[in-house]
Amino acid sequence: MRFETMAVRAGRGPVDDDHRERGEPHVPGIDLSTTYGFRTSSAVADSMDALLEGDFEAPNAVYARLHNPTVARFEEALAGLEGAEGAVAFATGMAAITAVLMAAGAPAEGVRRPHVVAVRPVYGGTDHLLTSGLIGSEVVWVAPDEVGDAVRPDTGLVFLETPANPTLTMVDVRDVIRQVRTAEVMVGHDVPVAVDSTFATPVLQNPIALGADIVVHSATKFLGGHGDAMGGVVATSDRWARLLRQIRMVTGGILHPLAGYLLHRGLQTLPLRVRAQQENARSLAQKLSEHPAVLSVHYPGLSGDAEEQRLLATQQRGPGSILAFRVRGGAEAARKVVESLDLITRAVSLGSVDSLIQAPALLTHRVVDEQDRESSGVPADLLRLSVGLESAADLWADLDRALSRTLDVEATHRVEPLVSLAL
Ligand SMILES: *Cc1c(COP(=O)(O)O)cnc(C)c1O
User: Fold this and answer.
1) Does residue 88 sit within a domain?
2) Domain co-membership, 346 together with 257
3) How many domains does the chain have?
4) Are 193 and 294 members of one domain?
5) Which atom of ligand 1 is nearest to the CA of 198?
6) Are residues 256 and 120 located together in one domain of the fold?
7) Which of 211, 235, 267 corresponds to the end of one domain?
8) Are 66 and 48 in contact (CB under 8 A)?
C-alpha cells in the first residue's frame, strides 16, 4: 500500500476472520472495556503471559492497561506510516518520551541511570524532563556534530528533534546515526537514537528510514489534528516496542481508547491536512520575511542556506506548516503583535486545523533556563506560528494588520525624540 492508502485504510481490518452474517462494520467500534471475560483460566493466563512479555496482542486482551483493541488499531496504522516494525501509544507525548527514557535505562539494557546525549532545542517539556533528572537520568546537551564524541560507556540514549520546536532547526539524522554507530563500537553496546518527529509527521519524514531506532510523536498535534485528543506514540523495532509495552503496563501511561479512536481517524486526513497547511505556511513565511516589522523568519529552506536546502531535499519531503519569526522591537513588540490578532488563536499546542500562535519563551519553553533558551535560539521576541487550514489570505490579513500596528507604534516613538531634539 502506498502512503495515502495506508493513511486511510491501515488498522481497519475486520474484527475477526469469520465473515459476520450482519456485515462487518464500516468503521471499527470503540472498545471501552476495562476488563475481558474468559472461559478457561489457563487460556487467559497464557494471554496474560504473552502481554506481560510485550506481545502486541493476545487471544484475550485481559485488562485495558495491558491491551486495548481500539488503541492497537491506531498503533498498527502509525507503525505502517512510519515504516516501523511496531508502535506503542501513550496517554501523551510526554508519557511516550518518559517511557523511552525508562526503556533506555532498563536493566536489560545494562544501564540503570541512563546518560542521555541530546541536541537543543527540543520541546520545553522534554528539555525539562532531561535537564531536571526528575526520573533519574543525566543529560549532556551538545551540537549535532558533537554527538558521537559525547557518547560514554553509560550512555543509554541519543535524543533529538527535527525540525526542532520552536526554531525549526533541522538536524542531519543520517550524520548523527553515523557518529553514534562509530561510538557504539568504542563503548561496546548499542546506543539507540530517538528522533521526535512531531513537527514533520510521517507525511514529511520517516526517521527509521534514515537509520533512527526510535521515532516519537506527540499525537496531540498533527496526528489528531483537531485539538481534541491527547496522545503520544513511539514507532520502533519489535525489540524496543516489546520493552516499551512492558514499561507502559507497569507505569500505566496508556492511551485512552476514545483518544485512540480520534487519533486513528485523524490519520485518514493527515496527508491532506499536512500538505494543505504546508502550502499556507509557505505563503505566510514568504510574506512575513518581506514585512518591515519582522526581524527574521525561521522556516525550513526559506533562508536559502545550502546545508538547510540539502537537508530539506534529502531528509524531508517538505518544510511543514510551523514557522517562527522574530518581531522588530523586542519581546514587548512581539507581545503586542500576538495580542492584536483577531483570527489566529493565541494558544500553545500546534498541528491543529486552526492556526495557533504563542511566544515559546513565555509559554512552551518557559520551563527552560533563560540562558539555555537564548543559546539555543529561543529569544523572548520569537513567536511560533502553527499554520492551519484557514484561507491564507485571511491569515495574512490578520498578521499584516497586527504587525503593521506595531510599526505605527514604533514610528510614533521614533518621531518624538527627533521633535524634542529640534526643540
Ligand atoms: C507537544 C510536544 C511534545 C509533548 O507532547 P504532549 O502530547 O503535549 O505531551 C513533545 N514533543 C514535541 C515536539 C511537541 O511539540
Assistant:
1) yes
2) no
3) 2
4) no
5) 13
6) yes
7) 267
8) yes
Amino acid 106: pLDDT: 74
Q: What local confidence, expressed as pLDDT, does residue 418 receive?
A: 46
Q: Are 229 and 213 in contact (CB under 8 A)?
A: no
Over residues 25-46, the mean pLDDT reads 95
Q: How many CA atoms lie within 13 A of 254 on its CB side?
A: 20
Q: Which residue has the cell 533558551?
A: 373
Question: Is 123 part of any domain?
Answer: yes
| Pair (292, 179) in one structural domain | no
Helix axes 69-82, 257-289, angle to 10 degrees: 40
Smallest CA-to-CA distance from 262 within 28, 16, 56 is with: 28
Contact of 369 with 127, CB cutoff 8 Å:
no
Nearest CA to ligand 1 atom 1: 218
pLDDT digits (tens, 9 = 90+) for 42-72: 999 999 999 999 999 999 999 999 999 999 9
In a domain, 9, yes or no: yes
CB distance 244 to 89 below 8 Å:
no
Using alpha carbons, select from 266, 197, 273 the residue that is nearest to residue 229. 266
From the CB of 253, is ligand 1 less than 6 Å away? no
**Separation CA 45–CA 196 (nearest Å):** 36
CATH number of the domain to which 384 belongs: 3.90.1150.10
Please state, rounded to an integer, the average pLDDT across all residues of the chain.
93
**pLDDT band of 410, cuts 50, 70, 90:** low
Whether residue 308 has its Cβ less than 6 Å from ligand 1: no
Output the domain CATH number for residue 159. 3.40.640.10
**Are residues 189 and 212 both part of a single domain?**
yes
Q: Where does the pLDDT of residue 22 fall: very low under 50, low under 70, confident under 90, or very high at 90 and above?
A: confident
> Is residue 217 a part of any domain in this protein?
yes
Q: How far is the CA of 283 from the centre of ligand 1 (A)?
A: 26
Sign (positive or negative) of CA dihedral 243, 249, 252, 254: positive
Q: Residue 298: give the domain boundaries.
A: 271-407
Query: What's the pTM value of the predicted model, to 2 decimals?
Result: 0.95
The residues carrying an active-site annotation are 65, 123, 196, 221
Pairing of strands 193-196, 86-90: unpaired
pLDDT in tens, 140-178: 999 999 999 999 999 999 999 999 999 999 999 999 999
